Amino acid sequence: MTDSTSRPTRRRIPWDYLAVAPFVIFAVMFLFMPTLSLIGTAFTDRAGNFTFDNIGGLFTDQILAAYSISIRVSGASAILGALIGLAITLAIIRGRLPAPLRSAVMTFSGVASNFAGVPLAFAFIATLGRIGLVTIVLRDVFHLDLYRAGFSLFSFWGLTLTYLYFQIPLMMLTIAPAVDGLKKEWSEAAQMLGANQWQFWRYVGLPILWPSFLGTLSLLFANAFGAIATAWALTGSNLNIVTVLLYNQIRGDALQNPGLGAALALGMIVITSLANVIYLIVAKRAERWMK
Amino acid sequence: MKPNKFWAWLVFALGAAYFLVPLLATFIFSLRMRRNELSFDAYVSVFSDPRFYGTFGYSLAIGAVTIVVGVLVVVPAVYFVRLRMPWLRPVMEFVTLLPLIIPALVLVYGYIRLYNSSSIIPFTSSAFGTDILLTGAYVTLALPYMYRAVDNGMRTIDIGTLTEAAQIAGANQLQIIGQIILPNILVAILSGAFLTFAIVIGEFTIASLLNRPAFGPYLVGIGTNKAYEPAALAIISFIITWGAMGMINVLGRFAPRTSARTD
User: Fold this and answer.
1) Which of A127, A131, A229 is nearest residue B21 as measured by Cβ atoms?
2) CATH 1.10.287.3510 fits A59-287, yes or no
3) Which UniProt keywords apply (chain A) (predicted)?
4) Is A95 within 8 Å of B204 when comparing Cβ atoms?
5) Main-chain phi, psi angles of A44, to 5 degrees
6) Cα A149 to Cα B241: distance, rounded to the nearest angstrom
7) H helices of chain A, where?
8) Which fold has domain B54-252?
9) Which residues lie below 8 Å from residue B44, measured CB to CB, with a gap of 6+?
């Protein structure tokens, strides 16, 4: 690092601090203060006194059910997204599919991982909704009525299937460097020592990928857990996930208690923080192998 | 090794089907507005709605301001922290990660509670003030991506040497940032800008809770009232996202390839 502070041309104006000031002011105004005030509200009753009542108020059937379904949708879409994303990445990189195909898939992943929110919900409604094209084709051509068979796009599995559309590409983009890091020499060495494909993956490949895999898993979880636009456009208030509950609370004080709303938000931060703390710890371990 | 290749193609084909079928189905669905024949009626309907232009224009404008504010907030901070205060880097890394941990919904709830009309800074009491809040929220959402793009850009140029050279030539700090550093990391900044644009343009949650006439809430409104237009809008949105990501790819080819690491 070049240290130019010792140069004689140094100005009197404290440029260093002045230049970092906008960043700090911005972070305080739009990141720290709003979050801290919300946390404060979570521990305050209507009269302004400190209380744990709001936190205790979270333990009702409706709110616990909302957290539970959110955690399950995020968990399912994260685990499935991570597994499928890893499988496709391995197929493309380790399966030696043609190089142009690989770059096309990675470009598409960049697009698909950002194609979330409302338009994604529209696409899945047009595909698998009640009058969606695939639903109609399956019913009229293959005599398979999805909705009579119990499937609904506006349910747990429908939402999970939709979330996978951005979860899988996100997994592929994050895990690709780790898969690239699996050196050819390692599989050659394993082969020379008499290991078969399965043994290579069991004792070399997967243990090396494991930290990156686990880390990305928690990233995907937080990603789905905080999402609302897709769910809102897809199911409206049908599916009682925690983001929809909080959205209704912000809109019209649905829980009729601002402190409880803040507690709901605090619960979300705690859950996504846990997921990210796991990510950071695991990412540190993963770095050892990436050199 | 042979069966390996077969499995690779099978996995790839299944994945491709999952990703391409919805796009294809949505496109065909969007063409079926007219009975018994395929037509672009749904697109005509979308493009003849003045609210489409109004809301899209609004989101475009907010997106542009978001990018400018994002650059002004991030670039000087990253530059000076890299050059003079490397001990602050872990703090910046952490702060720019926070928007991934705190859901946007929670953030906007905090804004509404903190900056309501009876607070010290009553942002929400005027349309302009709410626009500031919306922009602030979007800059925050884009912060992780903007920070990483700019940080990567500065890693590939030797800012220490560039700064010294400029100082010897008599440039002041503003000239150094504006005329030396900024042009050198322009490609990185533009990548961050297009990613920001892709995030902001169809954003629903924050715009709807702040009651601003943005493209995202407009989309949801169309979704509840129309049948074929949403499919057309999904295709249009996909093309816009593709365009933004395509620009990043194109720009990547112009990025400086030398990696003179200063750290």
Assistant:
1) A127
2) no
3) Cell membrane, Membrane, Transmembrane, Transmembrane helix, Transport
4) no
5) -125, 140
6) 35
7) 15-27, 33-42, 53-57, 61-93, 99-114, 118-128, 133-142, 156-180, 184-192, 197-200, 206-225, 229-235, 242-252, 258-287
8) MetI-like fold (1.10.3720)
9) none
Joined tokens for residue A165: 């559309």
CB A217 within 8 A of CB A75: no
Distance to chain A for B184, nearest Cα, Å: 18
**For residues A204 and A190, is the Cβ–Cβ distance under 8 A?**
yes
Q: How near does any CA of chain A get to the CA of B78, in Å?
A: 8
Work out the percent of chain B whose per-residue pLDDT is above 90.
38
Collapsing DSSP to helix, strand or coil, A160 comes out as helix
Per residue in A222-232, pLDDT (tens digit) is 889 988 888 88
Q: What is the pLDDT of residues A244-266, one digit of tens each?
A: 988 888 887 666 677 888 999 99
A32 alpha-carbon distance from chain centroid: 22
- Mean pLDDT, range A105-120, rounded to an integer: 88
- ipTM metric: 0.86
Domain ranges of chain A: 59-287
Is the distance from CB of A259 to CB of A185 less than 8 angstroms? no
Sole residue written with tokens 């049948």: B227
User: What pLDDT digit, counting tens, does each position of A155-165 carry?
Assistant: 889 999 999 99
Question: What is the per-residue pLDDT across B240-255, written as a single tens digit (0 to 9) for each?
Answer: 999 888 888 888 777 6
> Residue A110: its chain B contacts at CB < 8 A?
245, 248-249
Strand (E) or helix (H) holding A144 = none
Could you identify the residue written with the tokens 């990613």? B195
Length of chain A: 291
Instruction: Return all residues near A195 (Cβ < 8 A) that are at least 6 apart.
Output: A203, A204
3-class DSSP string for chain B? CHHHHHHHHHHHHHHHHHHHHHHHHHHHHHCCCCCCCCCCHHHHHHHCCHHHHHHHHHHHHHHHHHHHHHHHHHHHHHHHHHHCCHHHHHHHHHHHHHHHHCCHHHHHHHHHHHCCCCCCCCHHHCHHHHHHHHHHHHHHHHHHHHHHHHHHHHHHCCHHHHHHHHHHCCCCHHHHHHHHHHHHCHHHHHHHHHHHHHHHCCCCHHHHHCCCCCHHHHHHHHHHHCCCHHHHHHHHHHHHHHHHHHHHHHHHCCCCCCCCCCC
Q: What is the pTM of this model?
A: 0.87
Answer whether residue B262 shows pLDDT above 50. Answer: no
